[in-house]
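Database export, one record per block. Field names are fixed; values are copied verbatim from the stored entry.
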Amino acid sequence: MMTLLYILAGIVLLILILGMIAPKSFDVSRSIEIDKPLPEVFNYIKYVKNQDEWSPWKKKDPNMKQEFKGTDGEAGFVSSWVGNKDVGEGEQEIKKVVNNDRIETELRFFKPWKSQSDAYIKVDEAGSGTKVTWGFSGKNKFPFSIFMLFMNMDKAVGKDFEEGLGDLKTVLEK
């Protein structure tokens, strides 16, 4: 009986230690330069529905069910989706639009697990073109934070961001 108590206490202690050293937040972003004027690029990316043309997740499930509420390109617009195991279920809400600067959104995932992240697409002058930075950040809540000791969010999502930005460049430079 005492041995079982020691084992349980050891497991609880291990979980608490892992929870203390686990990363509490994440921040992933990627950038690309697009050979188009900044206002033209911004006017395209501020519309969430345009993401269907370049989003890597749309490619992972071209048959995902989508619904939209509000006015696209303005704060309060919500795009929701239900897809396969690769894209899950969730919604994206435009929280803030700063003309010719950035679009801030909130990503809320419901499946395969619940989470919430802040996302953004930012534009900057880059010579005769535009630098586009796409990123997201969030908090790792306990006990999910322990999994982040074994998973690198930058590696997991960064490749998707690079693919999406590459497709965005192709679409806009046509």
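Remark 1: Helices lie at 2-21, 38-45, 56-60, 144-147, 153-172.
Remark 2: The mean pLDDT is 87.
End of record.
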